[in-house]
Amino acid sequence: MSSTLTVPVALTIAGSDSGGGAGIQADLRTFAFHRVHGTSAVTCVTAQNTLGVKRVDALPKEAVVAQIQTVFEDIGVQAVKTGMLLNQEIITAVAEQVEALQIDNLVVDPVMVSRTGAQLIDDDAVNALRRTLIPKAAIITPNRYEAQILSGLEIHSLDDMRAAAQMIYRNLGPKTVLIKGGGMQGSLRGVDIWFDGQKLETLTTKQVDTKNTHGTGCTLSAAIAANLALGNNLATSLRQAKQYVTNALLYSLDIGKGQGPLGHFFPLLEN
Ligand SMILES: Nc1ncnc2c1ncn2[C@@H]1O[C@H](COP(=O)(O)OP(=O)(O)OP(=O)(O)O)[C@@H](O)[C@H]1O
Ligand SMILES: Cc1ncc(COP(=O)(O)O)c(N)n1
């Protein structure tokens, strides 16, 4: 006897991480955990491990567009997340597809700077993100450094995070801004702030004491997209996604010599 299931579908438009901790690999595991069918449009291929990124090769923008269109034509998609889009050409092409396909449930993780402060995309790409994609987002999820670039403010405290969220909302026009605390000091690492033009909310978990935090940002944005694909409203999606990242951090994996990945399927890892 076999049975068929109908499940929601999410699409990730992001880079491949050969080390399996972040990017497309983290996103697809996150979708699967949520019982959401994961589809993907690869933007670039990174040679990466737990110690860092050694090489990045971009795909032609036409290849990225073809993946998105081919998935939409046949399968249909309830929510989309974007991760590492790398260059101006790919960002502009993705923004055009968002417009043409009338994608509403769009989660933009504006991957620009790693948690260690290394810039991952050039200035033209940052400007393209600001101009073309961020204004179309249902939510954007910058980390501390990305929020500094997008707001022009220095961020050292919770109040700074709140001011930056409001500034980005007003200046760049996404429907909601969530600033992640992973790059802050001490207990603020578990605290995120979000602002939707009316409510200024805080999502708090205890700081998890682990060095294995590679892919936390990708995982959070993929979990938000998965929850939206399941039909949850934004506030519920953010709460659930935060809880999911925290659980996956509590079961992070000691793999490699640097920052290991999260335990995305944590219930299978319990002794
Ligand atoms: N040590 C920690 N303890 C608890 N929560 C954490 C910790 N580190 C990160 N987080 C949470 O993980 C989520 C991702 O935030 P973070 O600031 O790490 O994003 P990021 O810099 O984009 O991630 P990445 O390390 O993947 O680049 C946020 O909800 C943040 O609060
Ligand atoms: C392919 C790829 N995409 C994104 C990130 C950053 O991810 P994160 O912000 O989750 O560390 C990464 N290191 N590699």
Automatic annotation (TrEMBL):
Pathway: Cofactor biosynthesis; thiamine diphosphate biosynthesis; 4-amino-2-methyl-5-diphosphomethylpyrimidine from 5-amino-1-(5-phospho-D-ribosyl)imidazole: step 3/3. Its EC number is 2.7.1.49, 2.7.4.7. It catalyses: 4-amino-2-methyl-5-(phosphooxymethyl)pyrimidine + ATP = 4-amino-2-methyl-5-(diphosphooxymethyl)pyrimidine + ADP; 4-amino-5-hydroxymethyl-2-methylpyrimidine + ATP = 4-amino-2-methyl-5-(phosphooxymethyl)pyrimidine + ADP + H(+). GO terms for molecular function: ATP binding; hydroxymethylpyrimidine kinase activity; phosphomethylpyrimidine kinase activity. GO terms for cellular component: cytosol. Keywords: ATP-binding, Kinase, Nucleotide-binding, Thiamine biosynthesis, Transferase. One of its GO terms (biological process) is thiamine biosynthetic process. Residues 17-262 form the Pyridoxamine kinase/Phosphomethylpyrimidine kinase domain. Pfam families: Phos_pyr_kin. PANTHER family: HYDROXYMETHYLPYRIMIDINE_PHOSPHOMETHYLPYRIMIDINE KINASE THI20-RELATED, PHOSPHOMETHYLPYRIMIDINE KINASE. This is Bifunctional hydroxymethylpyrimidine kinase/phosphomethylpyrimidine kinase. The gene is thiD.
